[in-house]
Amino acid sequence: MPKTENGKTQISRRGALLGLGASAGAMAATGVLPGSLGFAQAQSSAPIRIGFQKHATGIGAAYGRWYDATTTAAVKRINDAGGINGRPVEVITEDDGTDPSRGAEVLEKFANQHECDVAFGTLFSHVVIGSAPRAGELKLPYFVVSEGHHVASGMLNRYTLQPGITDVKSQVISMAPFVADNLGKKVTMIFPDFAFGHDHRDFFSEAIEAQGGEVVAKIAIPPTETTFTRYFPSIPRETEVIYHVMVGPAVLTFVKELGEFFGPNRPELFGFIDSLEAVDINSTGLEFLDGTYFWEGMPRYAQANQTDAEKAYRAAVGVDDNGASLDDPADVATYAHMFGCWETLNIIKRGMESADYQGPQDRTKLIEAVEAMSDMPESEDHPQGAKRFNGKTHQTFGSQYISKVTDGKLVVEHVASIEDGLYEDEVDYTTQAF
Amino acid sequence: MDFGPHLMLATLEGAVIAAILVLTAMGLSIVFGVMRVVNVAHGEFYMLGAVLAWFVTSFLGGHPAIGFVAAILIAPLLVGLIAAAADQLVLKHIDYDPDRTIVGTIGILFIIQQTTLMTFGPEARPVAAPFNQRLALPWFEFTDNGFEMFWPWGLSITSYKLFVIAAALTVLVALWLFLTRTRIGLIMRATQQDSETAQAFGVPVGLVYSCVFGLGAALAALGAVLVVPIQQAHYLMGADPLLLSFIVVIIGGLGSLPGTVIAAILIGMSDGIISVFFSPTLAKIIATFLVAMVLVFRPQGLLGRTST
């Protein structure tokens, strides 16, 4: 220690900090600190840790916020009912910036740093595709809520599952007959220029041709784009129906400019609600949407025939009858997608219970338990409706809704059944080794 | 769409882009011209203008026009003050050294961007336009019945977009008058030509630098307030204008104001027209290619003077 001229010891600030840090480190290493020792003794009562890969920033931020709200509500419900295998559930949230490379890093943190049991919650397909290989290497079960066809197409691996939300291929197969029969056969598609949009482009083109229709133009728009009018002149004059699906922060601008472009004489519009997720359909400039149709994964507005399960789910997440936050009516939810988080967490719970999951050594047993699942009836665990999970393709199938904008609300016109959206298996993940 | 109406729509879209770009690039050009500072944080001042416009309009409420008028007065002023403070706190202390100012402004970029993320959040938020009528535009063609007017599908513009073009022109004229007809403008030009001699003649160069840096940022913010009813305020919106402004300033000649105007119109219009006819990505490729060509064959830019 430094000494002053008169011989007294004087502790400098830096010296004190160093000393403090060193002693804390030593205590942690020998297990004197509370917690480190406590966990070792009570392994079975330690929480189950679920890593939530959240799009907190970047183009997926609105979804991330609502996926978070739904996850929090679902975990609270699970914990209130006694947790999983008698253990509480803890969610570890990490921001992936809606970016594939950061997504893979986040999975690494979940596996190595936070010692999570499973990872969960990713929506954007490019993040899923960027992260899934790392999940396979880390042998970390990765439950995605993404809609993309990449899980069922076989491009990912045995550790990646999508049990809570139907994929795009199934959605568009079940929508195409309605579009061809009620709206028109010559379709122009406007979609975001990445994996999710390409799923729409490829599978809808096939599906509408099967119905005797055709896609007359395909307009791809980068998901980070902020102005759209310049893309619209490529819409051919013969178009009968515009099929639009956009994502990203500028969706409101997209829909507004679509209305400004056409003015009073527009073709029929069929949109995926993605173009309007987290956006109030009564925003100024969107009046032209009246009478147009939207796909919804789950109806944003409480319908006349609302089920009790749907009602309980809506209240638990904190969403009013118009699909907006109970605290702020201007804060509209991503209601058509976020139910996937709720249902996926309940599936993880059931999987862990039937596999008698104790810790990371049982991860493969958990995957096998989920693969063994099939029909799931509508219940408070599955408020969107019944599901049929295909253990071979790791993909679930459920009902789809087509709603019409009527007096400033989305009213369900048509419900496509699970059978409407089934297709041939393209992969059998259960034959892959762990 | 037929070629004629298509071209007209492309030209109108290009004019709106050029109008915003000319303001943003002008800010960057003035800062470089007078201070020789490459301001990498310029795009963030633009973003800050849009975000402040959202705060002002949502705080005031009422008719959109009230909020918009308040935003167009308050947001550029606030952004200008923030920029002047950044100049006093950061750039002044590194003596406007060319290399270190680049690193310094990168730091300012991150501070502004992350502060906005923490306060304003990651969502894109709309600002209502003060007025926004869709104006369908007619087109003419010769048919068997002679000269006829018809209303093509999709050929339209909104009254607000026309206002943006007019407002940008007005600001440009005002800026030109300010620089050439006022005493402050004279002092700025003197500092631009030779800051040491100007200082010898009693010009408070330090103060002029702060004002110029503030003015440059305020111009970017003004462009953003004008554009925010068309797009939306978002914390990452500064990247594109920064890139385009640099392209414009390099093509026009660093520090040359007339060159900046010409280049902004050239880039804005070509961006609009190429985007509509081909693809927006191709428009960016061509603009960047143009920069490379200018740097190879005319490094001083269209109207720039060779450095001595």
Write up this protein.
The complex is a heterodimer of chains A (434) and B (308). Chain A has helices at residues 13-30, 36-41, 61-80, 100-113, 125-138, 168-182, 195-210, 251-262, 308-317, 335-354, 363-371, and strands spanning 48-54, 89-95, 118-120, 142-143, 160-166, 186-192, 214-221, 241-244, 268-272, 293-296, 375-376, 387-390, 395-398, 400-406, 409-416. Chain A has an eight-stranded mixed beta sheet, sandwiched between helices. A seven-stranded mixed beta sheet of chain A has the order 7-6-8-9-10-14-15. In chain A, α3 runs parallel beside α10 (335-354) and α6 packs across α7. Chain A is α/β, with parallel strands linked by helices and 434 residues long. The longest helix of chain A has 20 residues, at 61-80. In chain A, 35% of the residues lie in helices and 18% in strands. Chain A has two domains: 43-167 and 338-398, Response regulator (Rossmann fold); 169-304 and 401-416, Rossmann fold. By secondary structure, chain B is mainly α. Chain B has one domain (3-235). In chain B, 70% of the residues lie in helices and 5% in strands. Chain B contains eleven helices and four strands; from the N terminus they run ααααββββααααααα. In chain B, the strands form two sheets. A two-stranded antiparallel ribbon of chain B has the order 1-4. In chain B, α2 packs across α9, α9 runs parallel beside α11 and α10 (257-277) runs antiparallel to α11. Chains A and B meet through α3 and α8 of A and α1 and α10 of B.
